[in-house]
């Protein structure tokens, strides 16, 4: 109970410190990619957790605080892999967050960029552009 109480106190402190911010922007991940099997390469669950923590240190805090957040693909590595930013809004201000994300998407010309393998199978995406083969 004491640990939970301390966690809740820290969440409230963080909320007070960012109360004047409409939106917060940070990296989505600490690195562009993790090789397949990197998280579970060892047999030690503590090492698995530590690798996850180091790979995604920014998202975890907002999972704890419950603030509305969205990851946006805003760039690409030299290898063509997506690089994202995490945009976080105020509690209860999801509309501002969604509007800002939509403006970023519109201003970038859209984010409907998928690897060739995605077009080899039937699928769909949120904006309904029909990525993938057409259904019969």
Structure characterization notes:
This protein is flat. It has helices spanning 2-17, 45-55, 57-65, 94-107, 116-119, and strands spanning 23-27, 69-76, 82-89. The chain has a domain at 21-112. It has 5 helices and 3 strands. The protein is 40% helix and 15% strand. Strand 2 and strand 3 form a beta hairpin. It has a 3-stranded antiparallel beta sheet, with helices on both faces. With 136 residues, the chain is α+β, with helices and mostly antiparallel strands. The model has no long low-confidence stretch (mean pLDDT 82).
State the strand order across the main sheet: 1-3-2
Relative helix content: 25-40%
Give me the number of helical elements. Answer: 5
Largest sheet entry = 3 strands, antiparallel
> How many beta-strand segments?
3
Residue stretches low in confidence (pLDDT < 50, at least 5 long) are: none
**Strand-residue fraction?**
15-25%
Shape: flat
